[in-house]
Write a structure and sequence with these properties.
The protein is of the alpha+beta class. It has two domains: 145 residues, no CATH class; 162 residues, no CATH class. Helices cover 41% and strands 15% of the residues. Helix 3 packs across helix 5. The longest helix has 19 residues. The radius of gyration is 23 Å and the shape is globular.
Length: 362
Amino acid sequence: MHQFSFLPYFPSTDFDMRVGRLHLLSFWKYKDAYIPDQTLREKLERICQLYVDTKLETLDELTIAVIDGNYSLTPPTDEQRRDIQRYADALNFCSVILNETNRAYTSDNFLLLHQNFTLTEDAIVYTTGSYVRLQNWQPFETAKLIKPSYIQDSIFRYRFDETLLQAFASTIDAHNNDDDYLFMVLEWFRYAYMNVEGFSYPNRVVLLATAYEVFFQLPDFGKTDAFATRLEALLKVDQMNVHDKQHRIIQTGLPIIRKANALGKVKENTIYGWWARAFYDLRSKIVHGSEVVKGDLLNHNDVEHFQIGVKMLQFCFYRLLEDKGHLIYRQSSPEVQAAFPNVNFDKLFKENDLRDIEELIK
């Protein structure tokens, strides 16, 4: 028996990338270059031809995921299968966080499937469903696996956060059990960005809030306080510089704002902590059955809490993975390092980009 892992709806038809132990390649473009065994390649072609669009034309975006150089496609170990899923979830996150239009690509574009096959059987066996799993058997000549219409082709050039993806790859390959919870965060994020029919927008807020609960390992009680303070601690708001209109540093440490929370109790937080409180209050309103109107989903600047939450989670992962030693910024040239020995410009520019979120929450 053989098995190959693939993403049938990947948002690119020309993808050939190695990250960590994983190699992602567009099947129809690169199959001859990377799958030298003709019998194996022809079998894969028959299987991949089954995946079609609504016009019954073969999907040219189908992308294979090969781990540890296993181009002979022997069945992977359980650990390898787990790692492939983690790579896919990381790539999903690193792609969707750049999806500012909310129409470029969704988690469905990064659906990962595993297909068992033999070189002699003239049929395909596959499973469908999530809660109720169904096993299907069909001969090749009658099988067609049609791409759902809610998985749209993007009109935008595919892009992803390369620095963050490399950091996730380092985390995956380290196989540190203490980091397992981070991939649960990515899994909840993937659920929040699914485009399947009938999925309500408030549900996405709850799923993203659940991702934050896992990320910060929030306690059973006092979740809102813990969320606000742990977010500020991770982002090191006390070390963030405040600039004037001429970009001169006028203060180190973001200002503390003292005001009442949703229950009328006076709390002290920066703008980051106050956003966290508002976001978690929205989550609580949804799950406790209160009426939620469109205005509840927006902050005081009429920006969606969900979209802010996506950007904020990116910022959190940058901080955390750097602290863990997995995210490494590029070094400047020797001449620049000599002139500015205490400044990493790659890190400085990225932090400035990440802090653009403050324009949305202040």
